[in-house]
Design a protein that fits this description.
Chain B: It is a multi-pass membrane protein. The complex is a heterodimer of chains A (about 270) and B (about 425). Chain A contains eleven helices and ten strands. In chain A, the strands form two sheets. A six-stranded mixed sheet of chain A has the order 6-7-8-3-9-10, sandwiched between helices. Chain A has a four-stranded antiparallel sheet with strand order 2-1-4-5, with helices on both faces. Chain B is built from 20 helices and four strands. A two-stranded antiparallel ribbon of chain B has the order 1-2. A two-stranded antiparallel ribbon of chain B has the order 3-4. The chains are: A alpha/beta (about 270), B mainly alpha (about 425). At the A-B interface, helix 3, helix 4, helix 5 and helix 6 of A face helix 11, helix 12, helix 13, helix 14 and helix 20 of B.
Chain lengths: ~270, ~425
């Protein structure tokens, strides 16, 4: 308990946090989904965000990524106040999210899905895509992107599906595609909303390995997951949410022993 | 693919579907042979008159091809349900008329030359496209449909209103002519062919330009009047612009810009979560498509020489949708093929069939009531071949075909088509490695 508090106090000094969320609130009708949540995320960490169903994890995600606008509170990413930014502006800043249920673009090929992601593509300007003089520059960039896309697909071992329509992929492959796509945006920090849900154990292990490789490369992750074992083994620190509020925060060992956390997960039964 | 049982039929099918261009040319030739046969059996036998019929059908077909391509950009690629096609067309042609009609005309305009009037019409149609797309930024697809449909009707009603029929701005009298038909500036093709293009065709034909002279003499050989030759030249001119449309839309589709458009159609939140400002893309594509629709209608009615607001009823919009759905939305070649099939088989052939029945069976005049019509074969035939029934029957036929198509081939005649959203071959990775 005291360890957690001192940790929060440290983070409050805003030395090197990449993402800082202060007193975030959001209600839908009469339901307060997020009720004054504050936390900070250190660069190069895999922070786990856990909590029982309805704890407000996904809403927090949607608030940070810009899909929802918070009722109050601030979100500072990399020194910039991004509170109320549209999703595309948040993504352009380098904070990119994945979706809880993989949202592939079904009628587009896997390669097209992945090549959509990179930021500031020349060919996204209409005249450059059409006018003959400018198009050669677009083509050069497209070749580079194609190469990067193939490499990313190889990294996630879905390169054999490159020309397949994304809609034909299995659930697990869609999760991999989603990760590949997020990575192709060249983000600084990645929000992963249950990236392992519905993924078989082999693939799960593979994805976790990738996650650690990427962490070693300097990426920062905020990671929502239900599977306690995975969170405890891979995330540090861990933030626990309950009923729209932050219940606890700290290293896995501290969280494991926190009575309130156990209570939140298992109801009143763990009163010893 | 090696199939053990290869009949001539399957070989022919494989040959036809091998290349889009081949499919298109075979289809075009067969459809126009059909037009020729139909006009032959409906008593039009002279080469000049048959040419005139074919030209008439081709003219409408090319217009629909261009409209379908413009709509494909908005709806097929981006998923923006624009039910205001007719409205943008009306804005294009009426703006052109306001800018370019001579100040001395019965319903005067600003008297500016056509090279200002045509781009002006296109530009204003685009601007309205962008304007209408603005609410669409926050709206889901079905609301956009309602907004655009209402917009198109507002445009039509404003054009035909008393207030717009004739008004004065800064001392200059302008007007849309209200519900009446509005005369339009002389078409550029007329200027090319006649020394005195502002005269009616019959008088102007007496003094052709050197180019006109060559064409009219050639036309005389097969009994085609100068008016037919003029329309023929116009149709060829339209065809060139249609090819340019195809080029433009294909280039957009096969580019990173087109990739974002497709992503917006598939899942807009994903596109924006990947850092794409989807609002900007939607506005751009709506403005471009609407401008193209404006241009099509300018070219259409410049040839006709006049325009009335009654043309721009929502039916026109639905026809363009049917043409695109027939071929398969989201594919440019589908749009082209769908338009050809739609215009020849559904829009134009009932007219010929009516004539053929009238020629061969000589049915009586349409009966007064439905009971009279059901009293025998002859009155029934008379009922079905009246002018009004033919256009009503066309709608019934259209409905049946759409229902059949939705059940059997929901992806359109061409079936499911994917066009690679990049301007490099994505599967071809070898090339990159050699280059670098």
């Amino acid at each position: 308990m005291t360890a957690q508090q001192s940790r929060t106090a440290d983070a409050d000094s805003e030395t090197d946090a990449i993402l800082s969320v202060q007193d975030l609130r959001k209600s839908f009708g009469g339901i307060t989904a997020v009720d004054g949540v504050s936390f900070e995320i250190e660069p190069g960490s895999i922070t786990g965000l856990i909590g029982p169903n309805g704890a407000g994890k996904s809403t927090t995600f949607n608030l940070i990524s810009g899909a929802y606008t918070p009722d109050s509170g601030t979100i500072v990413f990399d020194g910039t106040d991004i509170t109320g930014y549209r999703p595309d502006r948040v993504a352009t800043r380098g904070l990119v999210r994945s979706f809880q249920i993989a949202r592939e673009l079904p009628e587009m090929s896997v390669l097209e899905n992945v090549m959509l992601a990179p930021q500031h593509q020349l060919g996204e300007t209409l005249y450059r895509s059409v006018l003959p003089g400018f198009r050669s520059g677009v083509e050069t960039q497209e070749r580079e992107l194609r190469e990067r896309a193939w490499e990313t697909l190889e990294f996630f071992e879905i390169d054999h599906l490159a020309t397949e329509n994304a809609g034909n992929l299995s659930g697990g492959q869609r999760k991999l595609l989603e990760m590949a796509r997020v990575l192709m945006t060249d983000p600084e920090m990645i929000l992963l909303d249950e990236p392992l849900a519905g993924v078989n154990p082999t693939l799960e292990q593979k994805l976790i390995e990738r996650l650690h490789e990427l962490k070693a490369d300097g990426y920062t992750f905020l990671f929502v997951e239900h599977d306690m074992d995975i969170v405890m083994n891979n995330c540090d620190p861990i933030i626990v949410m309950h009923q729209g509020q932050k219940l606890a925060e700290g290293a896995p060992e501290t969280i494991k022993e926190d009575d309130r956390v156990l209570e939140a997960y298992l109801g009143g039964e763990v009163e010893q | 693919m090696s199939e053990p049982t290869e009949t001539p039929a399957t070989r022919l099918l494989a040959w036809l579907t091998d290349g889009d261009l081949r499919l298109l040319s075979v289809l075009t030739v067969s459809l126009f042979v059909l037009v020729w046969v139909l006009s032959f059996f409906s008593g039009i036998r002279e080469p000049g008159r048959i040419l005139s019929q074919i030209q008439g059908v081709a003219f409408i077909a090319v217009l629909y091809v261009m409209l379908a391509l413009s709509l494909n950009l908005q709806w097929g690629y981006t998923g923006l349900l624009n039910l205001g096609v007719a409205g943008f067309m009306a804005i294009g042609v009426y703006t052109m008329a306001l800018l370019s009609m001579p100040t001395s005309a019965a319903v005067p305009g600003l008297g500016l030359p056509l090279w200002i009037g045509i781009p002006g019409g296109v530009l204003v149609a685009s601007l309205f496209g962008a304007l209408v797309a603005l609410p669409a930024i926050r709206l889901q697809a079905d609301y956009l449909a309602i907004v655009t449909l209402a917009f198109s009707e507002i445009v039509r009603l404003v054009i035909r209103s008393q207030e717009a029929a004739s008004f004065t701005i800064a001392g200059t009298r302008l007007g849309t002519g209200g519900t009446d038909s509005l005369a339009l500036p002389t078409s550029p093709v007329k200027v090319l062919l006649y020394e005195d293009p502002s005269q009616p065709a019959a008088i102007a034909a007496a003094s052709p330009t050197p180019l006109g002279d060559i064409l009219f003499t050639a036309g005389e050989q097969i009994g085609a009047s100068p008016a037919v030759m003029e329309s023929l030249v116009y149709t060829v001119f339209l065809l060139v612009i249609a090819v340019a449309f195809f080029w433009l839309v294909s280039r957009i589709a096969n580019s990173p810009f087109g990739r974002v458009l497709k992503a917006i159609r598939e899942d807009e939140l994903v596109a924006s979560s990947l850092g794409k400002d989807t609002r900007l893309f939607k506005i751009k594509v709506f403005a471009l498509g609407s401008g193209m629709m404006g241009l099509v209608s300018i070219l259409w009615f410049l040839e006709r020489g006049s325009v009335t607001p009654a043309t721009f009823v929502p039916d026109l919009t639905f026809f363009v949708f049917v043409a695109l759905i027939l071929g398969g939305s989201g594919s440019n070649m589908g749009g082209v093929i769908g338009s050809l099939v739609f215009v020849v088989l559904l829009l134009e052939s009932p007219r010929f069939i009516r004539r053929i029945i009238r020629e061969s069976f000589d049915p009586p005049a349409p009966p007064e009531t439905i009971f009279d019509a059901l009293s025998g074969v002859d009155p029934l035939l008379g009922y079905f071949t009246s002018q009004e029934s033919i256009s009503a029957l066309r709608f019934i036929l259209l409905g049946i075909i759409l229902v059949y198509l939705m059940q059997q081939r929901p992806d359109g005649l061409l079936g499911h088509r994917t066009e690679v959203a990049s301007n490099v071959d994505l599967a071809d990775r070898q090339q990159t490695e050699e280059e670098s």
